[in-house]
Design goal:
This protein has about 190 residues and is of the alpha/beta class. The chain has one domain: Ribonuclease H-like superfamily/Ribonuclease H (Nucleotidyltransferase, domain 5, 2-Layer Sandwich), CATH 3.30.420.10. Helix content is about 40%, strand content about 20%. It contains five helices and six strands; from the N terminus they run βββαβαβαααβ. It has a six-stranded mixed β-sheet with strand order 3-2-1-4-5-6. Helix 2 links the parallel strand 4 and strand 5. Helix 3 crosses helix 5. The radius of gyration is 16 Å and the shape is globular. The chain starts with 5 loop residues before the first strand and ends in a 14-residue tail after the last strand. About 40% of the residues are buried.
Length: about 190
């Protein structure tokens, strides 16, 4: 039986970037149980580097993941307004490094806010990280073990994207600029 698409979820950060690759176990997945965790982890930047150097590391590491994992879709947490402007700027810069890696691979990008992820996964847009993790356990049978929360956050982003990319469900997909390659296959 032919497997369905793969989605790489990214939880952006300027020091630690979470990633999770999920793959559909069915050609037309309909629920979280129709997806399997194929790879999950974090990218840690080298301590003591300048911000531009960390951004370069993030871009290179994400691009290398894209080449190695070959996902059909990528999902990233959309920036949100924080109280600390300096932190929000750093997060925006990290997102830029990641988004440019996505663009280099010409992948369709699904952007989703933290509240949307929480609502889709835990049923509550104000859910705690622990509630989201428990929901992932129930939905996918996922056990985080010793993985950092950044990794399970990335899994929640990928899982939420898999559910919102279903036919008939609204999703904010950034279309590919390459007309020869379709931006989103409606099968996922």
């Amino acid at each position: 039986m032919k497997q369905g698409p793969k989605i790489l979820g990214i939880d952006p950060g300027s020091r630690v970037v979470g990633f999770a690759l999920i793959g559909a176990t069915k050609q037309k997945p309909r629920s979280p149980r129709d997806w399997a965790v194929l790879d999950i982890g974090v990218i840690r930047t080298t301590a003591g580097l300048s911000m531009p150097a960390r951004l370069g590391e993030i871009h290179t590491a994400v691009f290398d993941l894209l080449v190695e994992m070959d996902p059909q879709y990528v999902a990233i947490e959309r920036a949100f307004h924080g109280v600390n402007a300096a932190t929000a700027i750093k997060l925006g810069e990290a997102r830029g490094a990641i988004l440019s890696a996505f663009a280099r691979r010409n992948l369709p990008i699904h952007e989703i806010t933290p509240a949307e992820v929480k609502r889709v996964i835990a049923g509550n847009g104000a859910a705690s990280k622990e509630q989201v993790y428990r929901a992932l356990q129930a939905l996918m049978g996922f056990d985080r073990g010793r993985l950092p929360l950044d990794a399970s956050d990335a899994l929640a982003i990928a899982c939420a994207a898999s559910l919102t990319l279903q036919p008939g469900v609204s999703a904010s997909i950034v279309k590919s600029e390459n007309p020869a390659k379709p931006a989103c296959d409606p099968v996922c």
